[in-house]
Amino acid sequence: MRAIRVASAALLGLGTLALSCPPAVAGAAAAQRDDNITPFGFSVAPTTISAGGQVSLRLERGQGGCKGTATVTSGIFSTVTIRPGHNSATTQVDYDAKAGASYRVTFTCDGVSGWTDLAIADGGGRTNPTPAPYPVPRGVHAGEGGSAGGFDAKEIGLGAALVAGSVGVAWHLARRRDGQDGA
User: Fold this and answer.
1) CA dihedral 14, 19, 21, 23 (to 10 degrees)
2) Which of 65, 150, 156, 168 is the most buried (most CB within 10 A)?
3) What is the pLDDT of residue 36?
4) Measured between alpha carbons, how far is 77 from 52 in angstroms, rounded to an integer?
5) Which residues constitute the signal peptide according to the record (predicted)?
6) Dihedral of CA 135/139/143/144: which sign?
């Protein structure tokens, strides 16, 4: 009988916690998922470049995820084609690329697209000469800020108070029933 009361109190506490969670957190996992999953890996090296510099575009065909011709597009260079049997190509970034900006580079193969970002160096003409040691993984690209972005102390305090209150009430009711059952 005691186990049922403890389980009830725990479920009440978890239910209150779930209901006190702001909608922004409840949908955070869906917001983080941006469908950047591809059956092939890809990368741009270097990841930071000066306007006018050359970048290497790499495609991982190892597990058969990209069998056909791949196209790589961005707003800062002409469309590049990577033919079957080839894993990379190079291209030159436009001279008018805005310093300090980040541009999306999209890889498309066999009807599937994935993207990564290419940053333009802040005017100093310095680039990141070391290429990424491995292609972009095939997992979900989580956004910036994590899932707790936008929380403030008032929301956290209110949620903690609701959870503590519901657990306290459940404990009190369970203790009160224990006294009544023994009499």
Assistant:
1) 140
2) 65
3) 67
4) 10
5) 1-26
6) negative
- Element at 80 (helix H, strand E): strand 77-82
Q: How far is CA 54 from CA 18, 112, 156, in A?
A: 50, 25, 48
Four-CA torsion 158, 163, 164, 168, nearest 10 degrees: 140
Count of domains forming the chain:
2
Taking 50 as the pLDDT cut, the residues of the chain under it are 23-33, 125-130, 132-133
Boundaries of domain holding 174: 2-31+152-182
Structural domain includes residue 146: no
- CB-based contacts of 165: which residues, under 8 Å, 6+ apart? 16
pLDDT of residue 80: 93
Asked if residues 43 and 141 have their Cβ atoms less than 8 Å apart, the reply is no
In this structure, is residue 125 part of a structural domain? no
Residue pair 100/92 in contact (Cβ under 8 Å)? The answer is no
Q: Do 26 and 42 fall into the same domain?
A: no
- How far apart CA 130 and CA 117 sit, in angstroms, is 16
